[in-house]
Amino acid sequence: xxxxxxxxxxxxxxxxxxxxxxxxxxxxxxxxxxxxxxxxxxxxxxxxxxxxxxxxxxxxxxxxxxxxxxxxxxxxxxxxxxxxxxxxxxxxxxxxxxxxxxxxxxxxxxxxxxxxxxxxxxxxxxxxxxxxxxxxxxxxxxxxxxxxxxxxxxxxxxxxxxxxxxxxxxxxxxxxxxxxxxxxxxxxxxxxxxxxxxxxxxxxxxxxxxxxxxxxxxxxxxxxxxxxxxxxxxxxxxxxxxxxxxxxxxxxxxxxxxxxxxxxxxxxxxxxxxxxxxxxxxxxxxxxxxxxxxxxxxxxxxxxxxxxxxxxxxxxxxxxxxxxxxxxxxxxxxxxxxxxxxxxxxxxxxxxxxxxxxxxxxxxxxxxxxxxxxxxxxxxxxxxxxxxxxxxxxxxxxxxxxxxxxxxxxxxxxxxxxxxxxxxxxxxxxxxxxxxxxxxxxxxxxxxxxxxxxxxxxxxxxxxxxxxxxxxxxxxxxxxxxxxxxxxxxxxxxxxxxxxxxxxxxxxxxxxxxxxxxxxxxxxxxxxxxxxxxxxxxxxxxxxxxxxxxxxxxxxxxxxxxxxxxxxxxxxxxxxxxxxxxxxxxxxxxxxxxxxxxxxxxxxxxxxxxxxxxxxxxxxxxxxxxxxxxxxxxxxxxxxxxxxxxxxxxxxxxxxxxxxxxxxxxxxxxxxxxxxxxxxxxxxxxxxxxxxxxxxxxxxxxxxxxxxxxxxxxxxxxxxxxxxxxxxxxxxxxxxxxxxxxxxxxxxxxxxxxxxxxxxxxxxxxxxxxxxxxxxxxxxxxxxxxxxxxxxxxxxxxxxxxxxxxxxxxxxxxxxxxxxxxxxxxxxxxxxxxxxxxxxxxxxxxxxxxxxxxxxxxxxxxxxxxxxxxxxxxxxxxxxxxxxxxxxxxxxxxxx
Amino acid sequence: xxxxxxxxxxxxxxxxxxxxxxxxxxxxxxxxxxxxxxxxxxxxxxxxxxxxxxxxxxxxxxxxxxxxxxxxxxxxxxxxxxxxxxxxxxxxxxxxxxxxxxxxxxxxxxxxxxxxxxxxxxxxxxxxxxxxxxxxxxxxxxxxxxxxxxxxxxxxxxxxxxxxxxxxxxxxxxxxxxxxxxxxxxxxxxxxxxxxxxxxxxxxxxxxxxxxxxxxxxxxxxxxxxxxxxxxxxxxxxxxxxxxxxxxxxxxxxxxxxxxxxxxxxxxxxxxxxxxxxxxxxxxxxxxxxxxxxxxxxxxxxxxxxxxxxxxxxxxxxxxxxxxxxxxxxxxxxxxxxxxxxxxxxxxxxxxxxxxxxxxxxxxxxxxxxxxxxxxxxxxxxxxxxxxxxxxxxxxxxxxxxxxxxxxxxxxxxxxxxxxxxxxxxxxxxxxxxxxxxxxxxxxxxxxxxxxxxxxxxxxxxxxxxxxxxxxxxxxxxxxxxxxxxxxxxxxxxxxxxxxxxxxxxxxxxxxxxxxxxxxxxxxxxxxxxxxxxxxxxxxxxxxxxxxxxxxxxxxxxxxxxxxxxxxxxxxxxxxxxxxxxxxxxxxxxxxxxxxxxxxxxxxxxxxxxxxxxxxxxxxxxxxxxxxxxxxxxxxxxxxxxxxxxxxxxxxxxxxxxxxxxxxxxxxxxxxxxxxxxxxxxxxxxxxxxxxxxxxxxxxxxxxxxxxxxxxxxxxxxxxxxxxxxxxxxxxxxxxxxxxxxxxxxxxxxxxxxxxxxxxxxxxxxxxxxxxxxxxxxxxxxxxxxxxxxxxxxxxxxxxxxxxxxxxxxxxxxxxxxxxxxxxxxxxxxxxxxxxxxxxxxxxxxxxxxxxxxxxxxxxxxxxxxxxxxxxxxxxxxxxxxxxxxxxxxxxxxxx
Lengths: 896, 896
Fold this sequence. Notes:
The structure is a homodimer. Chain A is of the alpha/beta class. In chain A, strands 14-24-23-16-17-18-19-15 form an 8-stranded mixed beta sheet. In chain A, strands 26-27-28-29-30-31-32-33 form an 8-stranded parallel beta barrel, surrounded by 5 helices. The longest helix of chain A is centred in the C-terminal third of the chain and has 25 residues, at about 610-630. The first copy, chain A, is elongated, with a radius of gyration of 33 Å. The first copy, chain A, starts with a helix and ends with a helix. Chains A and B meet through helix 26, helix 28, helix 29, helix 31 and helix 33 of A and helix 25, helix 27, helix 28, helix 30 and helix 32 of B.
């Protein structure tokens, strides 16, 4: 089906490409660059970027890009090269030869190229890179002579045959590996790097045999043939299953095809005057405006990333080659001026000449993100709106990350120091494989994943772990980059630690620590310490973050409230910038000390009179709770939700506790048991709870309304501007709300009279919209509601028919198999649940144009859901205190 | 709020009424009748009917109607009589005097009248009747002289004072009663009828004292004053709380007000030449075309109803007064000709003169309804369409279920009353567990399964039992729903019964009944009786019912399918006229004998291979089941739903059964327990079931698809035209259906190849729409569905957030307090759930205009829901076999 669609989408392009000999190839290089940054659609992201870097005068190895239209044409004519493409490729290879002074297929100074795919949208699933293309049995000899490095030349050649066979021809990689293993065994060595030139030459023969055996033809010696087959492989990879499914899942459509980038090779491993490195134009960890990176002498790019050798910091470069170091410094400035953002660059020095291989916006920690945004505004590089848009709202949680408590930390023994790869503080037992980390974390344990280095296969374990500790690898190693992306604590390259994963232990400073040892790592300093250390959690928003959030508040239309049930939470949320409480749950208030006793008395009471007696005992507690919260919120509105959970949640279910309760309340055990069994429900989520309790036991709602009103009057008399709003949960019909609204308003009036309070007392009464039927009949319900607050947790449960308590059995599989795009409890399901919200907003406001609308489900703190809330016109979102800063920024971004 | 609306609605009427002296009073009587049947809006239902009866020449006591507009005008000018009203009333009283020859307030031959309210729509909550108005201390004497019956006169007077005080002035009735009691005590009598004229005269004095005391004024002696106050009381009753809330709940709006009917009194208790009676123009029980009724000589209407004296059958009337009897016979014919329906009449003979007091369409049994409809078509009184519209579809069930023989039942002792959960009648010994019921039933005994409540584990026992009796649970409990589905008799929630299953006995009303006691339950009334009672077994669909249903099929657009899981059910439904199976559940098929063992093996299997092994054992059973059903349906379509319930429903939950299972399967008990506990769910309704099972265990769906396909091919090879349709339950996302559809189609193709079947094999694959999100995204889902079938049971549970198993605690209260108009599990909630259905229909058909749409929830057999299905354009409804005739008729009515 996907194929049909694509063909349809491409038909116009095909007509163009076939009727006239179109320009299919765009050159980039010192002499002339034909493409530009804006031509992403035609040249793909990578092609446009290469052209752009070249244009601004960066020393980029020359090359050319075959357009995405050409890929489309390839498919339109049934999978053949369009007429003229071979010619245009040859013409551009000749240009490239002119530019580099080398010759394609030459036996003396061969031009080698890389071939890469690159669509307009970055898209895993398409072809990987083929390097060193252009080598064959003859030119490899030339390369060896030219570089005076036979080993290098044969190494390059064997890499080509391997990559080409694997990537272009689909020969399974392990066939090549087996051949390599045989040779290493014959030589009596274990490391690739220990194989001498002779061995590599032999390996090339063996690889060619593997190639012939599995491809059914000899490895092509004609470099043009190599190139054309590689280009075709890129074209074909556009329509691979993986690429198609990636596009379907990510709803990518309307693209022509992929471009193909052919670029001259440069080598950082040509000797001691060569090298390679990666760098960030600012510190990606702190955001400081310093040049930050590392390089390796006589090495290739992948060596830096793989973390096999420990690289040197960029600062050390001028000692090695001052000219190159200076040039790199100039390029850094140029890049930031041009891209107006921090860049992540890759470079190679081939025999003293600097080449830029890549530049892209750099990943960064939340803290760095904020600091850079604020700094760049100060530097007038960007404006405030750009700054706001650029900070990933979710990353702000990292700024609110825990750190070790000073004294406790000072008292702890430090056993090693690694690189401060990703800030934060974590303690835990040691897990040595990703699987182990996942398992133990699922079992509820805090673990640190300890690895020599990490690879993409480890991401699950990394995610499960409280922190990550590696013994090799630098600040840009896999572990460091991934951990920073998540805001997870990581110490990398702690070289003193020797890891024995098989035995499940590490050795450092002569001591051994096993699975059950607990260590602590400080991702901001790189320290590794013994034992668990107390952590502190920040409680305020200050510095650059405060600046950013102030800007955000200036832009946002929606307000941000918080979900808080205690004065402490309320205070914290206010300090994080919440402008009110959007959800104050009252059920937690019934559990402490004597309260639960009175609550249980109430539940056991057989008559309304006895229930009222028990409720009378609860009243003073509730009143005090509310007064405390109103006081903490200093005049900001507080939405109090009436009792929501089913009554059985307040009764003990185990025999011993039931006995204790019976004794405590002086009732027979049988009576307790009887009540517990009577209250048992098959599906408590869909049972007797929420407003249904208030309808059948109006005295409960009455007591709560009384407590709220009494607390309000008490505060107001003290000069504290209490602003309660009463919210009725689980409304499914207009009549329920009507009955309860009347009861609440009556109670307020009675209390006002009793307390002889003559001032104005306006307590709005509204409802949660958390039942599908409530959303579908919101127009009616709005007639008797002062506000709606969307309870998207329950709404999601009921709209999907998923119980949060039970969906764990299939939901992760649903997400991983992409049956669901995202976990609908994390990000709101716009299509289904969102549609209910939209209906309720529109029809509620049709009835009452000024109806106040908010959200208090967990989605209220999730950026993509917040964007949805903005779109449907909510007045505020409400989230947990720690997510308030995230929500403030996300609310601004939703407007921008 | 309600008041404001009404005022707004009435403003135009008020302008009219106040600008010119409008006609406010319409006379009816032998001399002249001003109103007519079509003027319901103006004269109210009762007024129009009185005018109509008079017009066709019936001997109706004369009178007049004050219009509803007048009531509106009364309110518009602030609660005063509009100008001219008093005059018009007086003018009409004079006409009435002319007509009757009596005089209002006369001391010799006083005219007495009744005053009644009557809006355009029948509306309880407004004023009751005031009789004998016009009497006072003087005219009562005249009446006594005129009738020569002093006791009659004083009795009429005391009734007036009592009714007038109560109804017009709001004096509590018990004040009058207390006065009466004192007098009776003084006379030493207990019955009202034993009080002589003297005592009644004294009573009138006492009543007037009561009146004065509570009203603060004397009882009005001016008959015009009496009348005007009574008219005003009727006007005021229009705006009483009771009337307002009745209108709000029943969504009655747009009415002006109530009319007031003033009518001359006639008396059946004026002596042996007077009498009163009620009659039906045909037998309301059998429908036979015979005059059917009873009368009492020298009595008032209420005496017949109260049953104090035994009335005589109508047949005896000619012996008493042949002339009157003949006249009544003529009137009977006239009425049926005029109203074209069976009439329920009230009449009074005052001193030999016959008066008709009321005629209305008579209530009747289902059987009578059918017979009358067919007869009246034959008699050319009505056409077929009218006949179809007139039969209450639900009443047809009465024609199909067994019931207790009337006399035998009357003789039996009733010991408890529960809810009439599933109609029918059953007797049997008491079985206290499902196993016991199965065993004893197998041994040939008739048993009633007696449980506190039932669960899916009990279905075998429920199926085996003759009837089901539960002590908790409502009309929508598991027991009730399952029993109704099967047409099996069930009494639910008989709370007076205390069950001791361990001891095998129940206690009720201080008596104990054990395993060997035989009880009888009446599922149509909820009665529980002692002993076996003779039953009357229903006739099949034949005779008049068959005629009616044939007519219905000719009119209906929608088809009627059935929900059936066995060949027996399938056959029965086909005999009741089902044109296919709309829901064939497959889970029941896994419970019998060896199947449950294989099913449990499958559930316990840790690997897919072992699951497949166990499923292989189930395959032949399933294939046989399907082949049986396809054969029974003789070429009609059969929609098979894949496995739906969560797996834990197939495992035992009690220790003993678990032990037995462990032994049976040869696995450790701990393993059984572990699996049971792993499968436990907090909210199974929202858990791992339906298509979610098929997604995680595709092998189950594969086995079922294979069984269906193999059974189909097997049938086709035998020349039986099998027409299966495969239905996937609980779809919430398009992708789920896409994956499973692919799996099913693949399996079909594989089986077709294996069986070397070369014929056409078209098995549509569709989905239930039973999750709100599925309805909301139906446009997407339709792309991969051949049909939709609405599972409105689950859709209602999720749209409302009600668990059927648990809602019994609040749902009955919700219905009785009119928070919900109807139990949404019985009649579809058009506003909420219906909206989801409508969205799904519209958007599904937008994607696929020919998409087949059906319903298979219990609503598929409920007439008001069927009307909704017609409206949204479904192709068929599917219901339990016993409701097929109901649905056929309802489907026709929906068109008409």
